[in-house]
Amino acid sequence: MDPLFLANSFYRRRKYEKAVEICSQILEKTPYDQAAWTLKTRALTEQVYVDEVEVDEEGIAEMVMDDNAIAQIARPGTSLKMVKPGTGQGAPSQAMRPMSQSGRPLSGFVRPGTQSGRPGTMDQAIRTPRTAHTARPVTSASGRYVRLGTASMLSTPDGPFINLARLNFSKYAQRPNLAKALFEYIFHHENDVRHALELAALATEACQYKDWWWKVQLGKCYYRLGLYREAEKQFKSALKHQDIIDTYLYLAKVYVRLDQPLTAVDVYKQGLDKFPNSVPLLTGIARIYEGLNDMTNATKFYKDILTQDSMHVEAIACIATHHFYTDQPEVALKFYRRLLQMGVYNAELFNNLGLCCFYAQQYDMALTCFDRALSLSTEETLSEVWYNIGHVALVRLSNYCRS
Hints:
By secondary structure, this protein is an all-alpha fold. The chain has helices spanning 3-12, 16-29, 34-48, 60-64, 122-127, 144-155, 169-173, 176-190, 193-206, 212-224, 228-241, 245-257, 261-274, 279-291, 295-308, 313-325, 329-342, 347-359, 363-376, 379-402. Helix 9 packs antiparallel against helix 10 (212-224). The longest helix is centred in the last third of the chain and has 24 residues, at 379-402. It starts with a helix and ends with a helix. Mean pLDDT is 82; it is low at 115-122, 125-136 and 146-155.
């Protein structure tokens, strides 16, 4: 069998390590084989590829040392950074629903940035305990990006696959097929945003500024570098050439980082005009309303998501959380049971099921769920389960004493 065909077969079956190994053998015999070079580049990229739309963890350095000027006293409902507990439409009081350090309600689904506190000053940031699981990293580049940057050294024992310092980017920019594979390798695998930006700028110029794909990549580079206004211009320019759902998601992500949630909602709605009932766009709107503590609109959009995708875990979990904190444990129990039927099987789910059963006065099922949660819990969740068990025991003891 032709080795290149076999390598391509492994790549399509997501067996990237075997594809890389075969391509390396081909390149040892014929170093200038462009097909093998491109396939190996794509395979290495896929090994560490992470969707940029969902990765939005903001580090302490980005928050405290941000140069973007934002109004210190924003109007209610217009800022994600200044949400007052219990002020949103349809939102329960802080006594009912716990809040994060920044005042945002704890969502029913863990997402990047939802469970972390936002320190207001450098003193608060430095005092943030680094041993806490909810503490933010010092910078967004201290965790995942550093790991991706060193992944290339582990892929080959002799060093990186491509020596970026010796590449002539102008030559590769003239060849779109090679340039796109090379850009993704540099951006995702090597995590070298500066060289990726250089290649994207040259390629955009080579295609006479008419290729929407390169403009999106320029926007991603600018966003990674913290140049949000430049990223906004590139994403808007890309939308003039081609309407793509991901471009709307990236543009809305820029506005969220600039603390303009209502503008981000407008962008999502513009995308819905082009792509009606798109689940990613509906999810983005629901997340923003939940961050603004506007639970009425958030629940409405989460229900719209379930109309399109009845298996959407995040929508089911967030609706269940909303019903639980609005004193409707029986309704929340139905949604959590739906998650259990879908195959979600972890300590967090059984912990929530136990609380719903307890407040719905199904005490025998509550103890069974907590017992199952203990058997599935890890070091991170064990304390939370025991806390809830202790809370249940105290409530039952107080009711017994009253009787």
